[in-house]
Predict the structure.
Amino acid sequence: MKILVATEKPFAAAAVNGIKEIGQTAGHEVVLLEKYTSPEQLVKAVADADALIVRSDKVTREVVDAAKSLKIVVRAGAGYDNICLDACTQRGIVVMNTPGQNSNAVAELAIAMMIYMSRNCFTPGTGSEIRGKRLGIQAYGNVGRLVAGKARAMGMEVTAFDPFVDSSVMEADGVVPATSAEQMYSECNFISLHIPATPQTRESIGYDLLTRMPQGGCLVNTARKEVINEAELDKALTDRTDLKYITDIAAVHQAELEEKFGKRVFATPKKMGAETAEANINAGLAAARQIADFFATGNRRFQVNK
């Protein structure tokens, strides 16, 4: 089988070497398409691929239609909204992600973002500490749980809201379950977002939730920009001059927000959540192992288009 690793933003060399070793040991051919500059290059390269590994690369319907032999796509990371699931499902192509491989990197970034905003973006002036502050975690999955543990270790009180996670799991971690998102926003100095972008969550974070936050509240977004209602974010920051917003995924109108609200709004220059050597390697190797296992045994454990 031919495994195509298509990465506009390439994996680390150690990850590439590991992917090749895993694939070749399993009897497969591994080919690379790195730093490509147009979608047409991906469309051409995928034509005879049996398997595809991507990072944030867009696997559109056009890409899927061109991939006549494609049987599996693995997104090296947790989110998979860059892949057209409908097109893959219609073709019987299995789509997987690699949950948990980037989680620690994202969790560390979320904590760093809280400290950065608490310390006035590292500019002169008296800031504050995060110890003793209350953190609300929206979605208690792999990343949320790691954020909770790190925050508690730094002396924060932690609350979480996730209707899909039993409250006993949170309580066992020393986290207080919130009965609703509204309750959590009303009680927490920081909110850390870890929800995926779905039809239910898109633009779900807006004026009503944000303006419930206590004085000096700060929203931390290492999830997806699509979950933010930008117009309502702008209104909330306008009406509540104490609120802050920091994100790992620049808003569509990020420049306007920063010009209008100054240091109260910050976005990393590019998505940095998984930008560690460890996360890069972990996700790449996990993707290769999942493909090898799929071809050897049919294992679909991490399939997302069931």
